[in-house]
Automatic annotation (TrEMBL), chains A, B:
The modification N6-(pyridoxal phosphate)lysine is found at residue 362. GO terms for biological process: gamma-aminobutyric acid biosynthetic process. The keyword Lyase applies. Belongs to the group II decarboxylase family. Pfam families: Pyridoxal_deC. It comes from Dicentrarchus labrax (European seabass). Its cofactor is pyridoxal 5'-phosphate. This is Glutamate decarboxylase 1b. Keywords: Decarboxylase, Lyase, Pyridoxal phosphate.
């Protein structure tokens, strides 16, 4: 249709009205309210008032005459999405409109999750999209603090829209030339920030930090016992892995999946701030060796999930060097601090690691998913994982096939996670990430200063948090006079869940809670959302106190 | 700004012009060329001619007065994307504009992949987005046949745009209530189509077929040797896995990663069509047992990567039952045929499998990534993978926490892959998928009929292909008189790469090639693109013959 109605004026944007968009109507019934032209570039999109109730998926491209309904359908979707984006940043909008599973399953008014044999009209599809957003959670809302990943970065969002439109796959240069190169350049930049000479090394983007951590264990095993690749774990002695009791559970999951067994994942004791005690690592290495086990791998966490603790990497690296162990740094959460001149010292020693996990989708605000595993030794990922599938990785292509990176992965097809991140880096510059990170840490410190001596609050650990994690109990008035003991513990354990439930029911804010070790349920506040301000921190505290008044 | 300029007329769509969008200009310099209103719904988006050369990421939301530039920036991106979509379906557009890695790395005119400390203007960002698409590959183009995943489904695309706008994570109902339920319902529907009673069982969407296959091996091991989870592979005897020599390399990758070792992945012989010979499976099971190994797992491929072969599942299932082995069906490519009443018989016996991999992002045209692992036994995924992380999976939430499915996964964070698929199913109905699949198989048969007796073509295997894979050699005129032998083999081996290189340089079409076993390079044509027609098949054949004229 675009070619049938060439536009005439200075801009090609215009508006059409067409309430009965049947096959004939699409061709004949259009009135150009505004018709524009901009001859040195592609035609701009045109907005039509379209009746989607008689249109179906089959009427869209590649259908004959499908172009106009396709564009109109996509624009209608964009209308829904841009309204969602605006409201997400509007503090008068709720963070969520909570419903129980059975309520959503029974079907809300006009919103039925069941699938059927027959197609729905595009009008219903658009309604379904609105409802999907309505009953979801606004993770970009300035008062959403529930997860390490929060915020809605506009550049990253645009990048994801482009990525899904390009709809390609990372396995070969052949079908993802630009994205493969972007990944390569970005990984090199990240390795430079880690401090590896000239940014040399290896790496790949993976579907999340758990998989990145799994990679680190796999390549450590391959480095020391390459025969396991062909002969299995029985070709190796009893191997043990070390990680902090505060570390992410994905190290244990990797131990289970890769055939080490969770019993061979040895948990290290931490100080009161949740940081590994290096002497405990060394003691446990010696103990394992005395039992005849073979220590293989140490994970140092840079930014633990709950406390935001940074293990002392340099001291751990000394021990790893002494005993010839693989040192992995899980910086899924804390890696972003490498972008900050003020805070990167918390990862001092990371340049001594053999591998590093770093999730830009957490502290750096990149949309989900975006996680990198970075490796100091070049070629080891391919050595560990390559299977040389002839149908994908032909050696006789006309281009330099060293850019076909798919065989390094444990995946075959691999989603394009790089573009949004690359685009954000272009758009913000390194200094933009730095400013974001510094601001989030400042906000956390604001919260810490606000509550550390405030009536009704107890901090889970003393001192300024290392990351944006602020962990605290709120003690409702009824518990304040109660003596320490099991009764108070039990009552306090139930406070955070109750407040959280009220928050979700009222939809005003969201923050996480959990127990840790022998500590009963406490709130874990984290800030990674660029939309959050001091007023949102104040709001959170006010909400907690308001809701807990009668507990 | 939307609130400062409330709209007045019947529709809220209008157009504004504002060439100098500085802070003042945004507030004062706007002229409403059309201003509309639709009071019972959200305000429609407004199009402004915006100067992005002085705007930066920091001017977008959550910045003060960031709403208007945010919407304009997103609309500008949508303009780029909708133009890309239109051209993708336009056969006068090239499939790709090929450049070598060093060319793109050196920087094309105005397109520089390097990242820097300082931010780029939004104008440059938009240019970068146009260039990213320009130098990429149009995987939705009607003449892109290079991969099992092709096509650009508009509903799926809209679904991905929404998914990235919602930007949440699948681990808990708490932050993905709608998506978690959609996943549950869709997995149940898929299990019903497999034929498991009442669609009961388990499953999860994973980041691709390789990971889904890895899950199947993990859960098989957990089923028979649950102690491996805690004690590692040394707690089990020497376990062996069986899969066809034509099967996907991910089974071997899983064997390597999970600690079995690739030598314990035993390859099964196939008939001339690439289908497993059941007697060979039984012989190899007996052989393994005689050596003292323990057969654990058999993978039957439903739709092999190169030949599109379907292993005889029922006969394999008989053997698995006899020897008490886990039967996995890798239907990453062929699973979609379950949606077709005409073709689903090719998977007869799949209901006897213990687990099934099925990638809607392949034959069903769902955008990347969308892969499911489906399991007949309920609860086994959680048993195998759960680590009960307190900070995510609190038992004391106010809702039914059995909907918190994250602990079943080997991932922690998990991308929302379900929505686009659910939305496509709603929009097309089961019959829409069926029509798509039947059409693709018809097109393949059209190609097969066209070339099977055509001069210059040799089929790699005889008979009508089972899936859309048509494998053939093109014999250039200069080789047609040559006697069989090593010289002809060597020359023929170089034909497909040369034609492919010419295709890519000219950008007119793309199709894959590879060797297989002792067969020299041949073309593997596959059809999964809903935009492809008979004329595109004809075009491909014409192109091959045109390019090979002088070889």
């Amino acid at each position: 249709l675009m070619s049938k109605f060439p536009s005439k004026n200075i801009s090609d944007r215009f508006l059409q009205k067409n309430n009965s968009l049947d096959e004939k109507g699409r061709l004949a019934g259009q009135k150009n309210l505004l018709s524009c032209d901009n001859s040195d570039r592609d035609a701009r999109f045109r907005l039509t008032e379209t009746d989607f109730s008689n249109l179906f998926a089959r009427d869209l491209l590649p259908a004959k005459n499908g172009e106009e309904p396709t564009i109109q359908f996509l624009l209608e979707m964009v209308d829904i999405l841009t309204n969602y984006v605006k409201k997400t940043f509007d503090r008068s909008t709720k963070v969520l409109d909570f419903h129980h599973p059975h309520q959503l399953l029974e079907g809300m008014e006009g919103f039925n999750l069941e699938l059927s044999d027959q197609p729905e009209s595009l009008e219903q599809i658009l309604v379904d999209c609105r409802d999907t957003l309505k009953y979801g959670v606004r993770t970009g809302h300035p008062r959403f603090f529930n997860q390490l990943s929060s915020g809605l970065d506009i550049i990253g969002l645009a990048g994801e829209w482009l990525t899904s439109t390009a709809n390609t796959n990372m396995f070969t240069y052949e079908i993802a030339p630009v994205f493969v190169l972007m990944e390569q350049l970005t990984l090199k930049k990240m390795r430079e920030m880690i401090g590896w000479p000239d940014g040399e090394g290896d790496g790949i983007f993976s579907p999340g930090g758990a998989i990145s951590n799994m990679y680190s264990v796999m390549i450590a095993r391959y480095k020391y016992f390459p025969e396991v690749k062909t002969k299995g774990m029985s070709a190796a002695p009893r191997l043990v892995l070390f990680t902090s009791e505060h570390s992410h559970y994905s190290i244990k999951k990797a131990g289970a999946a890769l055939g080490f067994g969770t019993e061979n994942v040895i948990l290290l004791s931490t100080d009161e701030r949740g940081r590994v005690i290096p002497a405990d690592l060394e003691a446990k290495i010696i103990d394992a060796k005395q039992k005849g086990y073979v220590p293989l791998f140490v994970n140092a966490t840079a930014g633990s999930t709950v406390y935001g603790a940074f293990d002392p990497i340099n001291e751990i690296a000394d021990i790893c060097e002494k005993y010839n162990l693989w040192l992995h740094v899980d910086g899924a959460w804390g890696g972003g601090l490498l972008m900050s001149r003020k805070h990167r010292h918390k990862l001092n020693g990371v340049e001594r690691a053999n591998s590093v996990t770093w999730n830009p989708h957490k502290m750096m605000g990149v949309p989900l998913q975006c996680s990198a595993i970075l490796v100091r030794e070049k070629g080891i990922l391919a050595g560990c994982n390559s299977m040389c599938a002839g149908y994908l990785f032909q050696p006789d292509k006309q281009y330099d096939v060293t850019y076909d990176t798919g065989d390094k992965a444990i995946q075959c097809g691999r989603h394009v996670d790089i573009f949004k991140f690359w685009l954000m880096w272009k758009a913000k510059g390194t200094i933009g990430f730095e400013q974001h990170i510094d601001k989030c840490l400042d906000l956390s410190q604001y919260l810490y200063n606000k509550i550390k001596n405030r009536e009704g609050y107890e901090m889970v650990f003393d001192g300024v948090p290392q990351h944006t994690n602020v962990c605290f109990w709120y003690i409702p008035p009824s518990l304040r006079g109660m003596p320490a003991g099991e009764e108070r513990r039990e009552k306090l354990h139930r406070v955070a869940p109750k407040i959280k439930a009220m928050m979700m029911e009222s939809g005003t804010t969201m923050v996480g809670y959990q127990p840790q070790g022998n500590k009963v349920n406490f709130f874990r506040m984290v800030v990674s959302n660029p939309a959050a301000t001091q007023s949102d921190i104040d709001f959170l505290i006010d909400e907690i106190e308001r809701m807990a008044r009668d507990l």
